């Protein structure tokens, strides 16, 4: 808990709901060596941008609603499950590791008082997806909310990737999202039941990115899938939105994308808000997009990255490193220049 508390400064803790704070610290922390925070884990301007993590919607927003979350046992999926559950949803969480799912389900339901159902599922396998959805329909009925969050990723030079490495990532991210969406979507259409779908992608779905080429390709595909269905399935009462998170310190992501812990400082240097994002911030945005408050929102792609994407895209943004004295010199040179 000591480690986790250091993530938040006094300012952000004091603005948190006192009742929620202890369980938030537990749920949104990960407590592993790879997540240990260093002393320089924030830039000074981060004090202006405290991460508020408690659920922001009205209690009961998801009362009588069923939410299905892939990868709901860990990281962002666990955070979204906690938030939806605390707002009244009955959640179904699905991934490969049933023990992890069971532990998360127990932890969350004991804190929110709402049932969380763990169901084993390998999203790469359409038969496993069908069995999972059968079980959900049998236990709690068709969902009102579907969050495609499960993913696989690791950094690697592309010339080191085998065909199976490509397949492991794209089968999980793109095919997994397609199997889940097609299976649940067909059943919702047949039952004439509306629902909100949400896909968790990444900021580099737009740009592509070296060293995570299969993930970038698959996430771009997921976005095309969502945007296609916005148009095609709106008439069936189905909405589709996308969240593109920037870096959030989860064990799953950082152990595979920053294995030595050396990249985190570089990330923070290029994030204008001066800090990494938090699980609770993603969970609040996800809850809003999946709630009836967002019933007119379909086809939205929302970056939540502290400005990192804009910083990386702007040709001259590194000039924020130039000192006042250096600007004086450069301005004098520029002013002396005549003609072209
Ligand atoms: C720092 C954060 C900043 C920004 C974040 C932005 C985006 C983040 C996106 C994310 O998706 S983060 C979420 C990450 N979470 C996970 O990846 C969780 C699930 N991951 C896994 O289960 C594994 O890591 C997996 C993806 C490798 C799949 O495991 P599985 O057991 O099914 O596969 P295998 O171990 O059999 O491997 C398949 C295939 O890949 C090759 N391979 C595995 N690791 C590497 C590596 N590091 N480099 C190169 N190749 C690798 C492995 O050798 C297999 O190929 P072959 O059969 O040997 O040919
Ligand atoms: N953390 C970050 O910085 C960022 C994360 N994201 C995205 O956020 C989402 C969550 O990532 P994060 O929480 O960080 O990482 P995690 O590794 O914690 O989450 C990935 C989840 O996917 C599940 N999963 C993986 N493979 C399968 C499979 N074949 N079938 C079913 N479930 C599977 C895992 O569970 P299990 O192993 O039990 O199957 C795990 O719960 C992902 O979509 C990721 O791409 C995007 C941008 C930034």
Instruction: Determine the strand fraction and express it as a percent band.
Output: 5-15%
Strand order of the largest sheet: 3-2-1-4-5-6-7
Q: Which ligands accompany this protein? A: ligand LF7OJPEM, NADPH dihydro-nicotinamide-adenine-dinucleotide phosphate
Instruction: Report the average pLDDT across residues.
Output: 91
Number of strands: 7
Helix coverage percent of residues?
Answer: 40-55%
Low-confidence segments, given as residue ranges, are: 1-36
Overall geometric form? globular
Radius of gyration: 21 Å
H/E topology pattern: HHHEHEHEHEHEHHEHHHEHH
What structural class do you assign from the helix and strand content?
alpha/beta
Give the distance, in angstroms, between the N- and C-terminal Cα atoms. Answer: 62 Å
Number of H/I helices: 14
Q: How can the largest sheet be summarized?
A: 7 strands, parallel
Keywords: NADP, Oxidoreductase
EC number: 1.3.1.124
GO molecular function, one term: 2,4-dienoyl-CoA reductase (NADPH) activity
GO biological process, one term: fatty acid beta-oxidation
